[in-house]
Description:
The structure holds two protein chains of two kinds. Chain A is of the alpha/beta class. Chain A has helices at residues 42-49, 74-80, 97-109, 138-151, 169-183, 199-216, 229-232, 253-269, and strands at residues 4-12, 17-26, 31-35, 56-64, 67-68, 82-85, 187-191, 219-223, 237-242, 245-250. In chain A, β1 and β2 (17-26) form a beta hairpin. The longest helix of chain A is centred in the last third of the chain and has 18 residues, at 199-216. Chain A has one domain (4-275): 3-Layer(aba) Sandwich (Rossmann fold). Chain A has a six-stranded mixed sheet, sandwiched between helices. In chain A, strands 2-1-4-5 form a four-stranded antiparallel sheet, covered by helices on one side. Chain B starts with 40 loop residues before the first helix and ends with a helix. Chain B is globular. In chain B, the strands form three sheets. Chain B has a ten-stranded mixed sheet with strand order 4-3-7-9-11-13-15-17-19-21. In chain B, strands 5-6-8-10-12-14-16-18-20 form a nine-stranded mixed sheet, covered by helices on one side. A two-stranded antiparallel sheet of chain B has the order 1-2. Chain B is of the alpha/beta class. Chain B has helices at residues 41-54, 89-94, 118-122, 130-136, 138-144, 155-163, 397-404, 410-426, 432-448, 450-459; strands at 59-62, 66-69, 102-107, 110-116, 126-128, 168-172, 177-188, 194-203, 208-217, 223-234, 239-247, 252-263, 268-275, 280-289, 295-304, 309-318, 323-333, 338-347, 354-364, 370-379, 384-394. Bound molecules: adenosine-5'-triphosphate and magnesium ion. Adenosine-5'-triphosphate binds at residues 13, 15, 18, 36, 38-44, 54, 87 of chain A.
Amino acid sequence: xxxxxxxxxxxxxxxxxxxxxxxxxxxxxxxxxxxxxxxxxxxxxxxxxxxxxxxxxxxxxxxxxxxxxxxxxxxxxxxxxxxxxxxxxxxxxxxxxxxxxxxxxxxxxxxxxxxxxxxxxxxxxxxxxxxxxxxxxxxxxxxxxxxxxxxxxxxxxxxxxxxxxxxxxxxxxxxxxxxxxxxxxxxxxxxxxxxxxxxxxxxxxxxxxxxxxxxxxxxxxxxxxxxxxxxxxxxxxxxxxxxxxxxxxxxxxxxxxxxxxxxxxxxxxxxxxxxx
Amino acid sequence: xxxxxxxxxxxxxxxxxxxxxxxxxxxxxxxxxxxxxxxxxxxxxxxxxxxxxxxxxxxxxxxxxxxxxxxxxxxxxxxxxxxxxxxxxxxxxxxxxxxxxxxxxxxxxxxxxxxxxxxxxxxxxxxxxxxxxxxxxxxxxxxxxxxxxxxxxxxxxxxxxxxxxxxxxxxxxxxxxxxxxxxxxxxxxxxxxxxxxxxxxxxxxxxxxxxxxxxxxxxxxxxxxxxxxxxxxxxxxxxxxxxxxxxxxxxxxxxxxxxxxxxxxxxxxxxxxxxxxxxxxxxxxxxxxxxxxxxxxxxxxxxxxxxxxxxxxxxxxxxxxxxxxxxxxxxxxxxxxxxxxxxxxxxxxxxxxxxxxxxxxxxxxxxxxxxxxxxxxxxxxxxxxxxxxxxxxxxxxxxxxxxxxxxxxxxxxxxxxxxxxxxxxxxxxxxxxxxxxxxxxxxxxxxxxxxxxxxxxxxx
Lengths: 276, 460
Ligand SMILES: Nc1ncnc2c1ncn2[C@@H]1O[C@H](COP(=O)(O)OP(=O)(O)OP(=O)(O)O)[C@@H](O)[C@H]1O
Ligand SMILES: [Mg+2]
């Protein structure tokens, strides 16, 4: 069984069904790219994987490291080793990047879910490599932060600013990857992390992702509209999402085909399958 | 609510309606001379007693917004006792153990503890009960007592002026600079007590000092009353950082208080009340620039829970210019609590070159809680800038999800948001022990309201 396994996933919001049967398997150490036109459901999938309350799973399951997490709380999924780099990161006024990271690392380190916190008795074992109970020592935290700051080529002062508060678009995206580096997830979903980055920032961020993959065996689902990022991070698998379904799967050659032909061609080809 | 520097959104002048409670008058700045007017303490007590006898319990009403009524306060069931001898446990428990310049503690109607740093005493600093100040430093006390506080706007104000015992008096002589705070404590240990607290603080020319007031009560069942009157006068060039830590506990404590801080020539006051608990709290807090060059920062935080009722009327008064003002309050409400805040900027005729700004930010944390905030501006000078702004917020679910996706559980995420909300003001206390105390109390209140906050989130 794959580390992250999505089977027959149907997702709706209050208004309508957005995902209409998605199947996807991602293992640690694998890099996947997910592409698809605006509104096809990419962010919906990303948010659903982390348990966003606005999205209701009506059919299908999500399993992570052998556990069914379809109904798990978002923080349990994070503690289990999933990570989402948001398309639109949220500002958290009054909390510095460094303090937030320490809180997050310590939250992840806390053992399993607290007693009574989960009335339905859903628990997650395997909470990842970081479980260990003790809060992180300041010294260890500092050296890890130092390392991540270097990896992502951000200013040291950056970490004492309030998280995403008044950050530029590019700074927000870097802060997402900085958090990813610090939290060391098993599988990360990067929702358009490349949009809004200039070419140098794009390279830094992408190389950072590649390095986490090479050194720590990170598995990643890179959601993107552009070929650019895929020059720096090489995906082994490419999936095309249209109208809530994955209509095409393959290797990097798919990306090139997409650049050449656009979505219309694919839509025509798979038209009956993605009937609106 | 919004305002841009330089634009004046003047509220309509408030009509004073005739009527027994004279409600409307209660939303005016005190403004102008107090009751003293050359009268002796005995004469003032007599006048106050007379007022007490014919006045009724007040009602504060802002139609369409809130009503603060003392209908459930049974004055006859309360007693002022003066036989207390020891510092109540709640005071010992609450006050941080830290360096201090002095401390005075009143329990019910009696001052039970006074201490003052010896070196400061030698420099002429006075810290004692107000009763004693009248006995031993009569001229100084009489010169300032009730200089700006009235005694007959409502029954509890009159009661305070007529019946106060004990009291606190602090005098800091010219040029004396004190780093550690003077602590003034009003504590209520048992149900059934009516405490009439009376404080007079004088900062003489170019003095610099801090005052921390603690208003605390044991968690008893049943009613008690604190009717307080506080006045502080800062003379030329004096600077004071004044903070109140108020937590009347879970008893049925009514707190109806008036506070006036007068800022003299080139003087400065930074004032921050932290209103963190009380069954029914009604404060009139007025910070006035009385002479040219005076400057002030008026901050405040509140955090109501359960069935608490809070009503704050905060006044930023400019009697002359040039002067500066900066009012910034933040508050949250959980449970079925009600918090009402009215902030008034008043700039008198001739107060040219006054610059002031009022902002109030609130956050509702449960479906049955309610916060109202009314900013108003009364301007009678033309070369000024006075404006107001603010936000009314709810918990940001996208921020909560964001933090949850990083491994924080919901309760922790909510805590981060609310703490972040208060943090800009708490750090302005510039006093680590007091900051910790305020943070811890807010955290405790949020933890207690956790289910409530949860229910609110799922209801939306
Ligand atoms: N919370 C929501 N409530 C209502 N509709 C939503 C919600 N989230 C997404 N949708 C709708 O679902 C569809 C898919 O949105 P989604 O954000 O998943 O697309 P996307 O593939 O990420 O698009 P883009 O490339 O523009 O980022 C859109 O029509 C969108 O309007
Ligand atoms: Mg998207």
